[in-house]
Specification:
The chain has one domain (3-122). It is 84% helix and 0% strand. The protein has helices spanning 3-33, 39-69, 74-97, 106-122. The radius of gyration is 16 Å and the shape is elongated.
């Protein structure tokens, strides 16, 4: 059992739950209620929100499988890279569009997942 990957799996599952519950309330519901968006924009964005849900859930599964394997696997390395890419894209958007680090705090959830995955891969 790799404890670092297990921790990354748990944090990924927590992040997925947060995305569904809080993100559903502050992003998905208002998106669906918006009347000033065209159908293509609205439902493509809603579709993407669900793709993110699936991707975060897949991170949890990937890390859980790797934790059980007890060693760094290609799956764990892939999940680690994805977590870091999610964090970097969040920070990149914040910089590009001059957004608030606090209001757009997705990076703070994905960065620790990547760190846990990295430590697990090196150990």
């Amino acid at each position: 059992m790799n404890g670092w990957f297990a921790a990354a799996a748990g944090l990924s599952a927590f992040t997925c739950g947060l995305h569904v519950i809080v993100g559903g309330r502050i992003a998905a519901r208002p998106l669906l209620a918006a009347t000033d968006l065209g159908r293509i924009v609205k439902f493509t964005t809603y579709y993407c929100w669900h793709l993110v849900t699936i991707a975060i859930g897949a991170l949890a599964v990937a890390f859980a499988c790797s934790a059980r394997a007890g060693a760094a696997t290609d799956l764990a390395v892939f999940a680690t890279v994805i977590a870091f890419l999610f964090a970097m894209w969040s920070l990149g958007m914040i910089a590009m569009f001059r957004l608030s680090l606090v209001q757009f705090c997705q990076w703070i959830l994905f960065f620790p997942i990547g760190v846990l995955g990295l430590i697990g891969s090196l150990g």
